[in-house]
Structure formats: C-alpha cells, structure tokens
Amino acid sequence: MCEIWREIPGFEGFYQISSERRVKSVERDVIQKSGRTFHCKEKIRKQSIMKTGYYGVTLRKPGILKLCTIHKLFGDAFPELIQGEWFPGAEIDHINGIKTDNRPENLRWVSHKGNMNNENTKDKMSSSMKGRPAPNRKWVIKLSKNNEILHFYPSIMQAGKENGINYKNIHSAINGVGRHKSAGGYKWVYSD
Fold first, then answer.
1. Domain spanning 5-72 has what CATH number?
2. Nearest one of 51, 52, 50, 55 to 74, comparing CA atoms
3. What does the alpha-carbon distance between residue 66 and residue 87 come to, in Å, rounded to a whole number?
C-alpha cells in the first residue's frame, strides 16, 4: 500500500501524519515576531517514547505547544483504519497491550471501561507492580570515557540515585541534549 498523508486536526497547514504513522512538518513560510519571514522545509518529526510508554511527538503552532501520542493522532486522521466503529467518547486500545505497537491491526475503538479492561494491559500493569520491570522501561549503561561498561541500571532514576547525579543530566547525556555529552564524568547509553 502506498503511504498516504493527511492533515492533523487542529494543526492543519503545520503538520501531517501518514498511513505509516510518520509525522512531518509541512513546508511553509513563517513570519517571526520581528517581521522577518523564513522558509520551513518539510521534515519528518522524531518520535520518542513518553513517560506513559506511548510514542509521542511535540507539535507547535503560534501560541500552542502540545505533546501528542501517535496513536491518537493516527486515529484522528485515519479513523477508518482502526478496528471497530468510532463513537463519541471512544478511546484507542492497543489490543496486544504493547503501547508502542501502533499498527492499525493492533488498534481498536473502545469505551474507557473497555480500554481499562484489556486483559493484556491489565497483565502488564500487574506484573510491573510486582517488582518486575515495566515493559517500556529501558536499562541504562554507565560507560567510562574509554567506552568500557562499568554498570547496568534498570532506569535513569536508579542510575541517578546510585551515582548522586540528577537523572535529568543522565537523560540529556544519553540524548545528546545541549552541552551534555556526559553526566557525573561518565558516558551513558540505553541498553538495546
């Protein structure tokens, strides 16, 4: 099937989402506060895993900055590709309980109660509450300056606690944000 692009409701003229669940900014001219105009090229937006475990993307337009989940954007733009019939108050359920699996065959329209009663989701929630790692948690590796593995941690928070480092600095070092290439004198990476 050929990839189809549609406008994202509420962000028409700014962003589009495709039938393959990719999000892009639309090519356009933008007028800055200073009155200068610059040309924005079309660009595929990077998706990241949110604290909730879902893939998300940040969308902007004048006066609005919004973090949106990919499955909700996809449902708004392609409701006919999601299993079942849309109805007022409908939510999108991940049938297999894997929050990052946004394939149309894994998404269905349900009520809030139906979403909360998905057996796959309930099993994952209860297992994570029994001290097992949550399904979306990424292990973190502490590396020396020479890239030697020093230690594994089940989360950024745990790594921060055990090393006396703010977890936000570790997150910035992993993602290469700003001037942070390391945190606490160490390199940090996610385990695959």
1. 3.90.75.20
2. 55
3. 24
Give the span between the Cα atoms of 141 and 151, in whole angstroms: 6
Name the region of 178 (left: φ>0; alpha: ψ -120 to 50; beta: rest): left
Mean residue pLDDT across the chain? 86
Nearest to 111 by CA among 86, 136, 135: 86
165 neighbors 159 (Cβ within 8 angstroms): yes
Closest residue by Cα to residue 20 from 49, 44, 51, 53: 44
Q: How far apart are CA 144 and CA 72, in angstroms?
A: 40
- Backbone angles phi and psi of 104, in degrees to 5: -55, -35
92, two tokens: 């999108």
| 21-74 residue pLDDT tens | 999 999 999 888 888 998 989 999 999 988 888 999 999 888 888 999 999 999
Give CATH 3.90.75.20 domain extents, the chain.
5-72
Distance, in Å, from the CA atom of 62 to the CA atom of 10, rounded to the nearest integer, reads 12
Contact of 74 with 68, CB cutoff 8 Å? no
